[in-house]
Protein 1
Amino acid sequence: MFPQTNQSLSVALHNRKFLFVLGITIVLIMAIVLWLFSRQTFDVVSINPNPSSINTLTPTIDVSYNQPLRSSRLAVSGSKGLIYKSVVKNRMLSLQLATPLKASKNYFINISVTSQSSATSTTTINFKPIYVTWSQISQNQQNQILSIQSSLEPSLSGLSYLPYEGTDYQLTISNSTSPPSIDFTYVPSYWDTTQGNSAENAAINNAKQWLSQHNLSSYQLINSATNQPI
């Protein structure tokens, strides 16, 4: 009877050792997997909209990453007056642009950001906006622009009338200045193109009249084509 008892005790001890070793092995494997996961390449997953699709009225660029971001370790720079505001939303960096942008002008954005796991990613976005009018952009983009405008301080609430599209011109807020100015974009019809500068001057006068009617004459009017005051 004693030999059987010793044998059972030996089997029990062997099983305990096996379970102990198995447990240690599982813990080590999990630790290695977690370490490898934390060390994965921290990089951009997507840029929305695609840089080649950015237009002159694109309100935001959303840059998504494969890891949560650390908002305290963020550096964003770019073309002068391009970035109005940057917001970190977990794994996304949302860049609000100071629209309208200049058609066919070369813009760039440099982003350096750190993840929660202390990995660093540096990205450069280059793009050349496509010219569009207010009626050509999506309802979502229109809503985004109006939302950004409504977030301005109450003293600027008169700008809620903008953007506005006349028959041969477009007026939009330019947040690249403080206080904001109003950008005038001439949109000639076929008939206007045959009339030279007189048609553009008429469009400017119509725009100024509209601004006066909506108590916006105090804002500086900028020609978006030349970036000069009108």
Protein 2
Amino acid sequence: MAHENLKFKLHLDDYQEWQPILGSQDFGTFYMVYIKFEKYENEENQFGVDEHRYTCKFRIQNFKGPVTIGFVGKPTIGHADKIKTDDDIHVYIDIQLGCFVYNEYSENTIKLDKPIPRNRPLMTRYTMRLPDSVTMMDTKQEFYNANDPMKSPFLYPYKYERDGDGAFELGRRPFDSNGDFETIPNPDQGGGGPYGICSPNTSWTI
């Protein structure tokens, strides 16, 4: 399929920019996940073993859809020879996400016994935690906060339409000469993102 050839470029030496590693759509919300490399260190640990440490920040951005998707736990990075692999994939980033979770940022210092190789494919995998009482209790937030809707686990779709970091408040307009009104636009008829129904999740390290 065409989207199998779509790969992000992942610059391992870029410590300034957020770099995309995943695009997907769940529960009607299209979102992207980004990584920023903060620091790389290479030294022997207390056992005399060479250790490669990557200090990384992760960000998720919800672009379209009423359900807020957020991080649950800390993302990890692992070499393919340490975990179950697919063909030609050398490194995996594993992320756990949850729906109705407002948790936009996460960070972790990943320790590897060898560096992330350059000029090799890297795949981002994710699991989605379904909503339950534990999830909602962990967030310690209101399900919908009318005073700060963008930080709500759920963006009321008949009042707001999500648009990246912001949202449009839906208005009303005359529908015809009789003075009838309709609400515009209808968020239930929208969806998708710049990659359509594809879910790009593979990067090429540089």
